[in-house]
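Tip: read the tokens left to right.
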């Protein structure tokens, strides 16, 4: 028991320990949510995450009552040791009820952890306090685990909306304005006051200190430990984002959007292997397939085209993650059919016809002709087809037409 004014006083921690010097950086995200009930005025929810704290005998800002000359001794510096445990508090503040819910994580601040805390609150308090709820409005920070560019945040919220039947609307704060969040001043400020000057040595200390926080106005906080693992680096592919039940708003749709309580839309059927490689219809004029130009009779040329298509179907192009080269599966950007590509490769190797000449005859760019010659020529070599050289060089449309015995239109002879 402390008695006498000279025996006690308010004192902060005293740095006396020593340890390894290692710089770290902690970041925090915040968001505020407002809850709407059917037939009632809006009751408010605020969500936020405090900066991650390293557990151990580290100094905490503030001062607490101690015996005179007996401050709590802590380490000489606040750089955490390698492998030190950490506490990740994520809180929910109900404005109308003046109550808080804080989950203390042990892993990482991720979108899955943020939505898991929201789900814990809903199962533990929300659905009992607001049994007729139909909508949830969340105002969130522009960055962090609940940022407007974080795909995992939207995916996890979509799962929460579907599981609870709530229509979730998200409106993001502008960058640098997270302190407008009411939870910062009504909940987390009280928690900081309560654990001032007290080292956070374990998860139990953090949970108990948060849970013991209260105010004269009636603030009560429920705190619990979340031992779950929330790995970082989780990616959400484009096809999942396209199937989310998400409706962007007319005003700044990237910052303001609504997630409907619906499952993901059905995944479209996978396109065939030839999709995007060979469009329907030929660009090259029919007279370019004359046997005198290709060196092949019509049945033999058609057989070569069929073999080429089968070879392409059995050997689809290899795509790097995030890359869609011209003509890759699903790209749908090639303009030349399989017959066009075989024909162009044959004419180029047989008659040394320039790319620009073939481009003008087919109505495509010279770059597309060059890619077709390079790729198709390699495939024809793989199929074992040898293109015999012609007797002359046919560098103009007129020369090709003369070999085939085909009259050219006037606009192609000028």
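Filled-in amino acids:
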């Amino acid at each position: 028991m402390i008695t006498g004014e000279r025996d006690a006083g308010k004192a902060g921690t005293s740095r006396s320990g020593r340890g390894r010097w290692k710089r770290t950086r902690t970041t925090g995200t915040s968001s505020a949510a407002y809850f709407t009930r059917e037939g009632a005025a809006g009751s408010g929810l605020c969500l936020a995450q405090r900066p991650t704290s390293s557990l151990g005998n580290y100094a905490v800002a503030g001062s607490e009552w101690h015996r005179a000359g007996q401050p709590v001794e802590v380490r000489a510096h606040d750089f955490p040791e390698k492998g030190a445990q950490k506490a990740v508090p994520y809180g929910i503040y109900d404005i109308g009820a003046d109550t808080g819910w804080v989950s203390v994580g042990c892993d990482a601040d991720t979108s899955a952890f943020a939505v898991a805390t929201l789900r814990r609150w809903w199962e533990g308090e929300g659905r009992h306090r607001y049994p007729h709820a139909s909508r949830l409005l969340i105002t969130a920070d522009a960055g962090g685990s609940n940022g407007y560019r974080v795909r995992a945040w939207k995916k996890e919220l979509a799962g929460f909306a579907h599981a609870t039947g709530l229509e979730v609307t998200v409106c993001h704060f502008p960058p640098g304005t997270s302190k407008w969040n009411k939870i910062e001043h009504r909940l987390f400020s009280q928690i900081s006051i309560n654990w001032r000057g007290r080292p956070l040595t374990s998860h139990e200390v953090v949970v108990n200190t948060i849970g013991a926080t209260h105010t004269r106005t009636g603030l009560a906080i429920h705190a619990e430990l979340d031992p779950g693992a929330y790995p970082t680096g989780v990616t959400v592919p484009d096809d999942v984002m396209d199937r989310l039940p998400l409706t962007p708003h007319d005003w700044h749709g990237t910052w303001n959007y609504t997630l409907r309580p619906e499952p993901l839309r059905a995944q479209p059927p996978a396109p065939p292997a030839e999709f995007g490689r060979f469009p329907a219809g030929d660009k090259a004029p029919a007279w370019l397939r004359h046997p005198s130009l290709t060196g092949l009779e019509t049945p033999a040329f058609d057989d070569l085209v069929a073999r080429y298509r089968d070879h392409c179907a059995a050997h689809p192009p290899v795509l790097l993650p995030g890359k869609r080269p011209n003509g890759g599966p699903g790209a749908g950007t090639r303009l030349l059919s399989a017959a066009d590509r075989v024909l162009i490769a044959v004419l180029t190797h047989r008659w040394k016809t320039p790319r620009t000449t073939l481009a003008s005859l087919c109505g495509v760019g010279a770059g597309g002709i060059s890619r077709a010659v390079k790729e198709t020529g390699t495939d024809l070599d793989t199929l074992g087809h040898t293109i015999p050289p012609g007797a002359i060089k046919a560098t103009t449309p007129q020369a090709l037409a003369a070999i085939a015995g085909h009259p050219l239109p006037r606009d192609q002879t000028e």
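The first strand starts at residue 8 and ends at 11. Residues 317 and 328 are 6 Å apart (CA to CA).
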